[in-house]
Amino acid sequence: MDYHSPASFAEASALAANATGVTRFLAGGTDVLVQLRSELVTPDTLIDIKKINGVSDITRIADGSWTLGVAATGAEMSEHAELVSDWPGVVEAMDLIGSTQVQGRATLTGNLCNASPAADSVPAMVAAGVTVTVTGPDGTREVAVEDIPTAPGRTSLAKGELISALNIPARGANGGDAYLRFIPRTEMDIAVVGVGVNLRLDGDTIAEARVSLGAVAPTVLLVDECAKAIIGTTLDDAALETLAAAASAACNPINDKRGTVEFRTEVAGVLTKRAAKTAYARAKGEQA
Amino acid sequence: MSKFHVSTTVNGDTVEYLCDPRETLLDCLRDKLNLTGAKEGCGTGDCGACSVTVDGRLVCSCLMLGVEAEGKQIETVEGISDGDVLHPLQKNFIEHAALQCGVCTPGVLVAAKSLLEKNPNPTEEEARYWLAGNLCRCTGYDKIIRAVMDTAAELREAS
User: Fold this and answer.
1) CB of B64 less than 8 A from some CB of A
2) How far apart are the first and last CA of chain A?
3) What is the ipTM of this complex?
4) Number of Cβ pairs closer than 8 Å across A and B?
5) For the structural domain made of B88-158, what CATH number should be given?
6) Digit-coded pLDDT (tens) for B97-120
Protein backbone atom coordinates (compact mmCIF):
# COMPACT_ATOMS: atom_id res chain seq x y z
CA MET A 1 0.00 0.00 0.00
CA ASP A 2 1.33 3.40 -1.03
CA TYR A 3 0.61 6.21 1.38
CA HIS A 4 0.50 9.82 0.20
CA SER A 5 -0.25 13.03 2.06
CA PRO A 6 -0.60 15.69 -0.65
CA ALA A 7 -0.62 19.43 0.08
CA SER A 8 -3.55 20.31 -2.19
CA PHE A 9 -6.77 18.80 -3.56
CA ALA A 10 -5.45 19.19 -7.12
CA GLU A 11 -2.44 17.08 -6.14
CA ALA A 12 -4.71 14.55 -4.39
CA SER A 13 -6.86 14.33 -7.50
CA ALA A 14 -3.82 13.83 -9.76
CA LEU A 15 -2.49 11.07 -7.47
CA ALA A 16 -5.84 9.29 -7.60
CA ALA A 17 -6.23 9.78 -11.36
CA ASN A 18 -2.83 8.19 -12.00
CA ALA A 19 -3.11 5.40 -9.44
CA THR A 20 -3.76 1.80 -10.40
CA GLY A 21 -5.76 -0.69 -8.36
CA VAL A 22 -7.86 0.33 -5.38
CA THR A 23 -7.59 3.92 -4.15
CA ARG A 24 -8.99 5.24 -0.90
CA PHE A 25 -8.96 8.73 0.58
CA LEU A 26 -8.23 8.97 4.28
CA ALA A 27 -9.91 11.62 6.46
CA GLY A 28 -11.05 10.32 9.86
CA GLY A 29 -10.40 6.71 8.88
CA THR A 30 -13.24 5.29 10.99
CA ASP A 31 -14.49 3.29 8.00
CA VAL A 32 -11.32 3.02 5.90
CA LEU A 33 -9.24 1.52 8.72
CA VAL A 34 -11.97 -0.93 9.73
CA GLN A 35 -12.22 -2.11 6.10
CA LEU A 36 -8.43 -2.34 5.90
CA ARG A 37 -8.23 -4.46 9.02
CA SER A 38 -11.08 -6.76 8.09
CA GLU A 39 -9.52 -7.13 4.61
CA LEU A 40 -12.78 -6.00 3.00
CA VAL A 41 -10.90 -3.28 1.14
CA THR A 42 -7.12 -3.23 0.95
CA PRO A 43 -6.17 -0.07 -0.91
CA ASP A 44 -3.15 -0.06 -3.21
CA THR A 45 -3.04 3.71 -2.79
CA LEU A 46 -4.11 5.56 0.33
CA ILE A 47 -4.32 9.35 0.06
CA ASP A 48 -4.43 11.16 3.40
CA ILE A 49 -6.05 14.57 2.81
CA LYS A 50 -5.42 15.95 6.30
CA LYS A 51 -2.19 17.76 5.36
CA ILE A 52 -4.15 20.03 3.01
CA ASN A 53 -4.61 23.56 4.42
CA GLY A 54 -8.00 24.33 5.92
CA VAL A 55 -9.46 20.80 5.89
CA SER A 56 -10.49 21.03 9.54
CA ASP A 57 -12.02 24.51 9.31
CA ILE A 58 -15.65 25.27 10.06
CA THR A 59 -16.36 28.68 8.53
CA ARG A 60 -19.47 30.82 8.31
CA ILE A 61 -19.25 32.98 5.22
CA ALA A 62 -20.67 36.45 4.67
CA ASP A 63 -24.04 35.31 3.25
CA GLY A 64 -24.64 33.19 6.37
CA SER A 65 -23.86 29.86 4.71
CA TRP A 66 -21.24 27.49 6.03
CA THR A 67 -18.19 25.82 4.55
CA LEU A 68 -16.92 22.75 6.36
CA GLY A 69 -13.52 21.27 5.67
CA VAL A 70 -13.65 17.60 4.73
CA ALA A 71 -11.69 16.55 7.83
CA ALA A 72 -13.75 18.56 10.38
CA THR A 73 -14.76 16.00 12.98
CA GLY A 74 -18.07 15.32 14.69
CA ALA A 75 -16.58 16.52 17.97
CA GLU A 76 -15.51 19.81 16.37
CA MET A 77 -19.00 20.31 14.95
CA SER A 78 -20.71 19.63 18.30
CA GLU A 79 -18.36 22.09 20.02
CA HIS A 80 -19.19 24.85 17.50
CA ALA A 81 -22.02 26.72 19.23
CA GLU A 82 -23.04 28.82 16.19
CA LEU A 83 -23.18 25.81 13.88
CA VAL A 84 -25.25 23.91 16.46
CA SER A 85 -27.59 26.88 16.74
CA ASP A 86 -28.03 27.18 12.94
CA TRP A 87 -28.21 23.49 12.02
CA PRO A 88 -29.05 21.42 15.11
CA GLY A 89 -30.40 18.56 12.97
CA VAL A 90 -27.19 18.18 10.95
CA VAL A 91 -25.06 18.32 14.10
CA GLU A 92 -27.24 15.88 16.09
CA ALA A 93 -27.19 13.41 13.19
CA MET A 94 -23.39 13.51 13.05
CA ASP A 95 -23.18 13.32 16.85
CA LEU A 96 -25.16 10.05 16.90
CA ILE A 97 -22.36 8.25 15.05
CA GLY A 98 -20.22 6.07 17.30
CA SER A 99 -18.49 6.76 20.59
CA THR A 100 -16.61 9.78 21.93
CA GLN A 101 -13.49 8.23 20.41
CA VAL A 102 -15.10 7.86 16.98
CA GLN A 103 -16.43 11.43 17.19
CA GLY A 104 -12.83 12.59 17.62
CA ARG A 105 -12.05 11.44 14.08
CA ALA A 106 -15.21 10.79 12.08
CA THR A 107 -16.31 13.29 9.41
CA LEU A 108 -19.45 14.18 7.46
CA THR A 109 -17.63 13.70 4.18
CA GLY A 110 -16.42 10.24 5.19
CA ASN A 111 -19.92 9.24 6.27
CA LEU A 112 -21.20 10.38 2.85
CA CYS A 113 -18.48 8.71 0.79
CA ASN A 114 -18.78 5.40 2.68
CA ALA A 115 -22.19 5.37 0.97
CA SER A 116 -24.06 3.32 3.54
CA PRO A 117 -27.84 3.69 3.12
CA ALA A 118 -27.97 3.83 6.94
CA ALA A 119 -25.44 6.66 7.30
CA ASP A 120 -26.87 8.92 10.01
CA SER A 121 -25.57 12.26 8.81
CA VAL A 122 -26.71 11.86 5.20
CA PRO A 123 -30.51 12.26 5.59
CA ALA A 124 -29.87 15.34 7.75
CA MET A 125 -27.56 16.80 5.09
CA VAL A 126 -30.02 16.01 2.29
CA ALA A 127 -32.86 17.66 4.22
CA ALA A 128 -30.65 20.69 4.87
CA GLY A 129 -29.81 21.03 1.18
CA VAL A 130 -26.10 20.52 1.69
CA THR A 131 -23.87 20.41 -1.38
CA VAL A 132 -20.30 19.24 -1.80
CA THR A 133 -17.50 20.65 -3.90
CA VAL A 134 -15.89 17.88 -5.92
CA THR A 135 -12.34 18.35 -7.20
CA GLY A 136 -11.27 16.24 -10.16
CA PRO A 137 -8.83 16.23 -13.06
CA ASP A 138 -11.04 18.73 -14.93
CA GLY A 139 -11.47 21.19 -12.08
CA THR A 140 -14.25 21.50 -9.53
CA ARG A 141 -18.01 21.02 -9.62
CA GLU A 142 -20.72 21.39 -7.00
CA VAL A 143 -22.96 18.39 -6.36
CA ALA A 144 -26.01 17.92 -4.12
CA VAL A 145 -25.41 15.43 -1.30
CA GLU A 146 -28.29 13.22 -2.53
CA ASP A 147 -26.48 12.76 -5.86
CA ILE A 148 -23.30 11.32 -4.31
CA PRO A 149 -24.39 7.81 -3.18
CA THR A 150 -25.62 5.61 -6.05
CA ALA A 151 -25.90 2.23 -4.29
CA PRO A 152 -24.68 0.70 -1.01
CA GLY A 153 -20.91 1.35 -0.93
CA ARG A 154 -20.92 3.15 -4.30
CA THR A 155 -20.74 6.85 -5.19
CA SER A 156 -21.04 8.95 -8.33
CA LEU A 157 -17.46 10.19 -7.90
CA ALA A 158 -15.34 9.32 -10.94
CA LYS A 159 -11.72 8.15 -10.84
CA GLY A 160 -9.55 11.03 -9.72
CA GLU A 161 -12.43 12.89 -8.08
CA LEU A 162 -12.73 13.66 -4.38
CA ILE A 163 -14.83 15.88 -2.18
CA SER A 164 -12.88 19.01 -1.26
CA ALA A 165 -15.46 20.97 0.76
CA LEU A 166 -18.94 20.72 2.18
CA ASN A 167 -21.37 23.63 1.81
CA ILE A 168 -24.31 24.12 4.17
CA PRO A 169 -26.84 26.78 3.11
CA ALA A 170 -27.55 29.88 5.18
CA ARG A 171 -30.04 29.05 7.92
CA GLY A 172 -32.08 32.20 7.37
CA ALA A 173 -35.01 33.26 9.53
CA ASN A 174 -37.80 30.99 10.83
CA GLY A 175 -36.10 27.74 9.87
CA GLY A 176 -35.49 24.55 11.79
CA ASP A 177 -34.14 21.06 11.19
CA ALA A 178 -34.06 17.76 13.07
CA TYR A 179 -32.81 14.20 12.70
CA LEU A 180 -34.15 11.10 14.42
CA ARG A 181 -33.27 7.47 14.02
CA PHE A 182 -34.44 4.18 15.42
CA ILE A 183 -31.91 1.69 16.79
CA PRO A 184 -32.60 -1.34 19.00
CA ARG A 185 -30.66 0.12 21.95
CA THR A 186 -29.86 3.57 23.34
CA GLU A 187 -26.50 4.30 21.73
CA MET A 188 -23.98 3.35 19.11
CA ASP A 189 -25.82 1.20 16.64
CA ILE A 190 -26.65 1.31 12.95
CA ALA A 191 -29.89 3.07 12.02
CA VAL A 192 -32.88 0.83 11.26
CA VAL A 193 -34.65 3.96 10.04
CA GLY A 194 -33.31 7.53 9.96
CA VAL A 195 -35.26 10.71 9.16
CA GLY A 196 -34.07 14.24 8.47
CA VAL A 197 -36.55 17.12 8.25
CA ASN A 198 -35.76 20.73 7.44
CA LEU A 199 -38.42 23.41 7.10
CA ARG A 200 -39.07 27.13 7.01
CA LEU A 201 -42.14 28.89 8.36
CA ASP A 202 -44.12 31.87 7.22
CA GLY A 203 -45.93 32.73 10.45
CA ASP A 204 -47.31 29.39 11.64
CA THR A 205 -47.49 27.93 8.14
CA ILE A 206 -44.77 25.77 6.61
CA ALA A 207 -43.48 27.58 3.53
CA GLU A 208 -40.62 25.27 2.55
CA ALA A 209 -39.72 21.73 3.57
CA ARG A 210 -37.31 18.94 2.72
CA VAL A 211 -37.70 15.44 4.14
CA SER A 212 -35.13 12.68 3.77
CA LEU A 213 -35.22 9.02 4.80
CA GLY A 214 -32.27 6.75 5.54
CA ALA A 215 -31.93 2.95 5.88
CA VAL A 216 -35.20 2.23 4.05
CA ALA A 217 -33.84 1.99 0.48
CA PRO A 218 -30.51 1.29 -1.29
CA THR A 219 -29.66 4.99 -1.02
CA VAL A 220 -30.82 7.82 1.21
CA LEU A 221 -34.07 9.24 -0.21
CA LEU A 222 -35.26 12.82 -0.68
CA VAL A 223 -39.03 12.41 -0.48
CA ASP A 224 -40.93 15.17 -2.30
CA GLU A 225 -44.30 13.69 -1.34
CA CYS A 226 -43.43 14.21 2.34
CA ALA A 227 -42.56 17.85 1.72
CA LYS A 228 -45.81 18.36 -0.21
CA ALA A 229 -47.76 16.81 2.67
CA ILE A 230 -46.74 19.55 5.09
CA ILE A 231 -46.07 22.65 2.95
CA GLY A 232 -48.94 25.10 3.39
CA THR A 233 -50.02 23.51 6.68
CA THR A 234 -49.44 24.34 10.33
CA LEU A 235 -48.39 20.72 10.92
CA ASP A 236 -51.84 19.88 12.25
CA ASP A 237 -52.87 16.27 12.87
CA ALA A 238 -54.20 15.78 9.36
CA ALA A 239 -50.94 17.01 7.83
CA LEU A 240 -48.95 14.73 10.17
CA GLU A 241 -50.98 11.69 9.09
CA THR A 242 -50.48 12.52 5.40
CA LEU A 243 -46.78 13.01 6.10
CA ALA A 244 -46.48 9.64 7.83
CA ALA A 245 -48.31 7.88 5.01
CA ALA A 246 -46.04 9.53 2.41
CA ALA A 247 -42.92 8.49 4.35
CA SER A 248 -44.10 4.88 4.66
CA ALA A 249 -45.05 4.80 0.97
CA ALA A 250 -41.52 5.88 -0.03
CA CYS A 251 -39.88 2.97 1.80
CA ASN A 252 -38.27 0.11 -0.08
CA PRO A 253 -36.27 -1.46 2.74
CA ILE A 254 -34.43 -4.71 3.28
CA ASN A 255 -35.49 -7.39 5.74
CA ASP A 256 -32.76 -8.14 8.22
CA LYS A 257 -32.14 -9.01 11.85
CA ARG A 258 -32.41 -5.37 12.92
CA GLY A 259 -35.80 -4.73 11.30
CA THR A 260 -38.33 -6.32 9.02
CA VAL A 261 -39.75 -4.58 5.97
CA GLU A 262 -43.05 -4.00 7.81
CA PHE A 263 -41.31 -2.62 10.90
CA ARG A 264 -39.06 -0.23 8.98
CA THR A 265 -41.98 0.99 6.88
CA GLU A 266 -44.14 1.74 9.91
CA VAL A 267 -41.33 3.30 11.95
CA ALA A 268 -40.42 5.58 9.03
CA GLY A 269 -43.88 7.15 9.32
CA VAL A 270 -43.71 7.51 13.09
CA LEU A 271 -40.22 9.02 13.12
CA THR A 272 -41.00 11.40 10.27
CA LYS A 273 -43.89 12.86 12.28
CA ARG A 274 -41.69 13.26 15.37
CA ALA A 275 -38.79 14.80 13.45
CA ALA A 276 -41.16 17.22 11.72
CA LYS A 277 -42.57 18.30 15.09
CA THR A 278 -39.07 18.96 16.42
CA ALA A 279 -38.03 20.87 13.28
CA TYR A 280 -41.25 22.91 13.53
CA ALA A 281 -40.66 23.74 17.21
CA ARG A 282 -37.08 24.74 16.40
CA ALA A 283 -38.25 26.96 13.54
CA LYS A 284 -40.58 28.71 15.99
CA GLY A 285 -37.71 29.11 18.47
CA GLU A 286 -39.59 26.98 21.01
CA GLN A 287 -36.99 24.25 21.22
CA ALA A 288 -33.21 24.11 21.03
CA MET B 1 7.57 -1.42 0.45
CA SER B 2 9.06 1.76 1.80
CA LYS B 3 8.81 2.59 5.47
CA PHE B 4 7.95 5.99 6.82
CA HIS B 5 10.02 7.86 9.36
CA VAL B 6 7.72 9.39 11.96
CA SER B 7 8.69 11.95 14.57
CA THR B 8 6.08 12.59 17.23
CA THR B 9 5.62 13.42 20.92
CA VAL B 10 4.35 10.78 23.33
CA ASN B 11 3.67 11.74 26.95
CA GLY B 12 5.91 14.79 26.48
CA ASP B 13 8.89 12.89 25.04
CA THR B 14 9.99 13.30 21.45
CA VAL B 15 10.10 9.86 19.85
CA GLU B 16 10.82 8.52 16.39
CA TYR B 17 9.97 5.29 14.66
CA LEU B 18 9.91 3.68 11.23
CA CYS B 19 6.59 2.21 10.20
CA ASP B 20 4.84 0.51 7.36
CA PRO B 21 1.88 2.68 6.25
CA ARG B 22 -0.53 -0.16 7.10
CA GLU B 23 0.50 -0.20 10.77
CA THR B 24 -1.87 1.52 13.17
CA LEU B 25 -0.82 4.01 15.83
CA LEU B 26 -1.68 1.25 18.33
CA ASP B 27 0.79 -1.13 16.62
CA CYS B 28 3.46 1.58 16.72
CA LEU B 29 2.89 2.45 20.38
CA ARG B 30 2.99 -1.18 21.47
CA ASP B 31 5.55 -2.76 19.15
CA LYS B 32 7.97 0.09 18.42
CA LEU B 33 7.77 2.24 21.55
CA ASN B 34 7.02 -0.60 24.02
CA LEU B 35 4.08 1.35 25.42
CA THR B 36 1.85 -1.67 25.96
CA GLY B 37 -0.75 0.07 28.16
CA ALA B 38 -3.12 0.65 25.23
CA LYS B 39 -4.67 -2.70 24.34
CA GLU B 40 -6.11 -4.14 21.18
CA GLY B 41 -9.56 -5.42 22.10
CA CYS B 42 -11.45 -5.35 18.82
CA GLY B 43 -9.21 -3.47 16.38
CA THR B 44 -12.28 -1.83 14.84
CA GLY B 45 -13.01 1.13 17.13
CA ASP B 46 -15.80 -0.55 19.09
CA CYS B 47 -14.24 -1.32 22.48
CA GLY B 48 -12.06 1.66 23.40
CA ALA B 49 -9.27 -0.41 24.99
CA CYS B 50 -6.75 1.36 22.74
CA SER B 51 -7.89 4.89 23.71
CA VAL B 52 -5.25 7.63 23.62
CA THR B 53 -5.45 11.37 23.07
CA VAL B 54 -3.99 13.01 19.97
CA ASP B 55 -3.56 16.79 20.24
CA GLY B 56 -5.90 16.61 23.23
CA ARG B 57 -8.62 14.72 21.36
CA LEU B 58 -9.74 11.28 22.57
CA VAL B 59 -9.41 8.69 19.78
CA CYS B 60 -9.02 4.96 19.24
CA SER B 61 -5.40 4.34 18.35
CA CYS B 62 -6.48 1.28 16.33
CA LEU B 63 -8.39 3.61 13.99
CA MET B 64 -5.41 5.82 13.23
CA LEU B 65 -2.32 4.97 11.23
CA GLY B 66 1.14 5.30 12.71
CA VAL B 67 2.16 7.62 9.85
CA GLU B 68 -0.62 10.03 10.80
CA ALA B 69 1.08 10.69 14.16
CA GLU B 70 3.80 12.83 12.57
CA GLY B 71 4.11 16.09 14.53
CA LYS B 72 1.26 15.23 16.91
CA GLN B 73 1.08 15.33 20.71
CA ILE B 74 0.03 11.90 21.97
CA GLU B 75 -0.90 11.00 25.53
CA THR B 76 -1.26 7.40 26.68
CA VAL B 77 -2.07 5.72 30.00
CA GLU B 78 1.66 5.57 30.74
CA GLY B 79 1.69 9.37 31.06
CA ILE B 80 -1.15 9.64 33.56
CA SER B 81 0.81 9.04 36.78
CA ASP B 82 3.53 11.42 37.93
CA GLY B 83 6.35 8.90 38.17
CA ASP B 84 5.36 6.58 41.02
CA VAL B 85 2.65 8.96 42.23
CA LEU B 86 -0.68 7.76 40.94
CA HIS B 87 -3.22 10.17 39.44
CA PRO B 88 -6.38 10.55 41.59
CA LEU B 89 -8.29 8.59 38.94
CA GLN B 90 -5.89 5.67 39.29
CA LYS B 91 -6.09 5.79 43.10
CA ASN B 92 -9.87 5.82 42.99
CA PHE B 93 -10.00 2.93 40.52
CA ILE B 94 -8.02 0.88 43.07
CA GLU B 95 -10.13 2.19 45.97
CA HIS B 96 -13.41 1.26 44.25
CA ALA B 97 -12.02 -1.98 42.77
CA ALA B 98 -13.16 -0.54 39.43
CA LEU B 99 -11.30 -3.21 37.49
CA GLN B 100 -11.02 -6.96 37.33
CA CYS B 101 -9.09 -8.36 34.37
CA GLY B 102 -7.70 -4.90 33.55
CA VAL B 103 -7.77 -5.08 29.76
CA CYS B 104 -10.19 -2.16 29.44
CA THR B 105 -8.66 -0.16 32.30
CA PRO B 106 -5.96 1.81 30.43
CA GLY B 107 -8.51 2.95 27.85
CA VAL B 108 -11.07 3.81 30.52
CA LEU B 109 -8.49 5.85 32.45
CA VAL B 110 -7.43 7.80 29.36
CA ALA B 111 -11.06 8.44 28.39
CA ALA B 112 -12.08 9.43 31.93
CA LYS B 113 -9.12 11.82 32.26
CA SER B 114 -10.12 13.37 28.94
CA LEU B 115 -13.70 13.80 30.21
CA LEU B 116 -12.60 15.51 33.43
CA GLU B 117 -10.32 17.88 31.54
CA LYS B 118 -13.20 18.92 29.30
CA ASN B 119 -15.93 18.82 31.93
CA PRO B 120 -14.75 18.91 35.57
CA ASN B 121 -18.32 18.59 36.85
CA PRO B 122 -20.05 15.92 34.76
CA THR B 123 -23.40 14.45 35.67
CA GLU B 124 -23.47 10.67 35.99
CA GLU B 125 -25.36 10.53 32.71
CA GLU B 126 -22.70 12.63 30.96
CA ALA B 127 -19.97 10.38 32.35
CA ARG B 128 -21.81 7.25 31.21
CA TYR B 129 -22.34 8.63 27.69
CA TRP B 130 -18.73 9.81 27.45
CA LEU B 131 -17.44 6.38 28.48
CA ALA B 132 -19.97 4.44 26.37
CA GLY B 133 -17.21 3.68 23.87
CA ASN B 134 -15.14 1.88 26.51
CA LEU B 135 -16.42 -1.66 26.92
CA CYS B 136 -15.78 -3.62 30.11
CA ARG B 137 -16.88 -7.24 30.33
CA CYS B 138 -16.06 -7.69 34.04
CA THR B 139 -17.27 -4.99 36.39
CA GLY B 140 -20.64 -3.97 35.01
CA TYR B 141 -19.53 -0.31 34.90
CA ASP B 142 -21.01 0.79 38.23
CA LYS B 143 -17.67 0.79 40.04
CA ILE B 144 -16.00 2.55 37.12
CA ILE B 145 -18.60 5.33 37.15
CA ARG B 146 -18.36 5.70 40.94
CA ALA B 147 -14.57 5.99 40.71
CA VAL B 148 -14.86 8.63 37.99
CA MET B 149 -17.54 10.65 39.82
CA ASP B 150 -15.57 10.54 43.10
CA THR B 151 -12.44 11.68 41.30
CA ALA B 152 -14.32 14.53 39.68
CA ALA B 153 -15.55 15.69 43.11
CA GLU B 154 -12.06 15.31 44.60
CA LEU B 155 -10.41 17.30 41.81
CA ARG B 156 -13.01 20.07 42.11
CA GLU B 157 -12.33 20.35 45.85
CA ALA B 158 -8.59 20.43 45.28
CA SER B 159 -8.75 23.19 42.69
Assistant:
1) yes
2) 46
3) 0.96
4) 81
5) 1.10.150.120
6) 999 999 999 999 999 999 999 999
